[in-house]
Predict the 3D structure of the following.
Amino acid sequence: MSKFRTIWTTEDRFVEVIDQRKLPHEWVVVKLETYEDAELAIKEMTVRGAPLIGATAAYGIYLAVREMIEEELDPSFVDEAFSALRASRPTAVNLFWALDKMQKALDESTDFLTTAWDMAGQIVEEDIETCRMIGVHGLPIIEEISNRKKGETVNILTHCNAGMLGCIEWGTITSPIYQAVQKGIKVHVWVDETRPRNQGSNLTCYELTRHGVDHTLIVDNTGGHLMQHGQVDMVIVGTDRTTRSGDVANKIGTYLKALAAKDNQVPFYVALPSTTLDMTIRDGLTEIPIEERNQDEVRYSTGKAQSTGKIESVLICPETTKAANYGFDVTPARLVSKLITERGICDASEEGILELFPEYR
Amino acid sequence: MSKFRTIWTTEDRFVEVIDQRKLPHEWVVVKLETYEDAELAIKEMTVRGAPLIGATAAYGIYLAVREMIEEELDPSFVDEAFSALRASRPTAVNLFWALDKMQKALDESTDFLTTAWDMAGQIVEEDIETCRMIGVHGLPIIEEISNRKKGETVNILTHCNAGMLGCIEWGTITSPIYQAVQKGIKVHVWVDETRPRNQGSNLTCYELTRHGVDHTLIVDNTGGHLMQHGQVDMVIVGTDRTTRSGDVANKIGTYLKALAAKDNQVPFYVALPSTTLDMTIRDGLTEIPIEERNQDEVRYSTGKAQSTGKIESVLICPETTKAANYGFDVTPARLVSKLITERGICDASEEGILELFPEYR
């Protein structure tokens, strides 16, 4: 499909990304020339979304290797880059997966620069293919609902942005949606705003607009009401980390939508590249670290000011009020209808996951 | 208790209210001199909260009667005022209750002006006493949790503003909280931001700050996560209308918190003056009309601009993205632990309500 990618290389062999904090109002491209640039891009959420974080970290290692060679630095410089990038975000497991993959490739290589460049590129291409396949497997779910509704619009609710902007192309949850739209199936997406950072209203609405997909923005409070009134045919969300038992860490608030889906017999799907599987842990609630972010993300809301047209942050509480800002929550496997992966669809359970991924047996 | 009231009369016998849309950043008093002023104040949410809407409508009728007499208008002028005020908001039943009370009093009176003035004043005083009694009955619930926790802080989560700002004094959900704090019980309140209009961050945080109650602002997505991790001892919310069977209409998103409370065995209380009971209907989901408001409340967020210090609205989605804005949702009685009323505590069921309010048998 896509009209654009979220990360790309330049002629002088550096890396560029979109500053996603400025979307949908401004299209700003940021050049990453050092691993610190990549680290900062992840930390400050210039880039976000588990697969894109992984790809950015991989290129961060490439940039460190390049700097080491060009500046004749000690190899420990690259070790520092690994440590720094590993610490840039805590929840998304793709970050660690991508860094492990880079580490292994470098360990087995003598031509570090070529290896790092090629492996980062490979991680990007693999993500694109993985997302495409998630769409191939997810599409029949939408098709079936459309058939059941005799071609009437299929209403899909999503939370946060697990779209192409969080990946490279296609996205995870958007891949079946884009493929359904390409096939002529009538689809409408309810987009959760996703406070505090508004990835839904800023990013999901943006990419659905660019791809011509009918959608309606709602506040995070609304999904339950819509489900009670039969206005949601399915929920589909992404994940930053899925445990061996099928527990799913995703953007804060996902759990509430899963509860509402269960209460109203609305199927609740999680779309994931297998790189977000963390087969080393079982209990998502106790074992997945949940990032706590700056309280000002909650105390302020950011957008394009009505009076000036400039991007502005507005304080939405008394000056002295403090806030808590948990980035993710965990949806227990019992609330997840199915996992949609690049290898197919499975139950959110150890048995289900192992059927598709027997290498973890 | 209170440091201020939300509606009061002036020496020249008009009415003043706080423009709650400007809180917490600015304290602006609005004088209501005609029933149209009162109607607009309700419609545009200068005032909000079921009891305060009722009180404002009651004074709106007084203002209509006054204008009729002073301008020697036809009595149909007051009928028009009744119709206009009745149509000013659809969900809160107190509005209709207050207007019915005014109508009845006027029907039985010959001195319309005195009757309207007195009855509006009585509605205000009754609300204050009602709210105080909700606190008297709710306080032991907080006390018991405090005792069970051996004096450790009691963590209370609330959604929207069912505080004194939505009433006249005390508030509904804040009445037990203020009374607990006065008694020296350690209380901490998790305040849901409550998008799209941010009554939590704007109003609840404001009044808790003014009354020195420890609180933390969270986005609407966070409550489930906190409950999963034992950080919420009880949830307490208000209601705009409660049916005969105990279904509760309240600010959009309340239902999601009730689901999370149930899933984590956290007690879920609804505090209500009996004026919000609607004993004429049973099924909240099909019988309570849910207000749909302007989509720009969702597309924009409003607060104090960081760069200018002025109140500003910022667009949080692409220019072309449309939004849906449902004001309320219905929490089924099965998810409500208890109702806290001015007459005591009861089950959220017809039997429970009738035990306290046998006049509806």
Chain B touches chain A through 67 residues (CB under 8 Å).
